[in-house]
Amino acid sequence: MKNSKLASLLSKLDKNELKEFGKFVKSPYFNSNAKVVKLYELIAKHFPEFESAKLSKENIYKHIYPSEKYNDSTVRGLLASMLKLGEEFLVVSHFKVEKHYYDEFLLSELADRRIFDLFNINYKKITEELENSNSKDEEYYYLKFRIETKRNSILSKTFIPLTQKDIPGDMRTEDSDALINFFLISLYKRYNYLLTKMGSLNVSAEMDFLNETLDYLGRKDLKKIPTLNFHYNRAMLYLSGMDEKYFLKLKDILFNDFNSLDHTERYNIMAVLQNYCVQKARDKEDAMGQIQYELYNFAIAKDILTFDNVEPVHHILFSNIVTAMLFVNKIDEAKNFIKKFKTRVAPDRMESAENLNMAKICFKEKKYEDALTLLVKVRHEDVFYKIGIKNLYAMIYYEMNYIEELFMQLDSYKSFISSNVLLGKRLKESHSNFVNFLLKLVKLKDIGKKDDIEYLEHEIKKTYSLTGKAWLLKKIDELK
Question: Is the pTM of this model over 0.85?
Answer without folding.
Answer: no
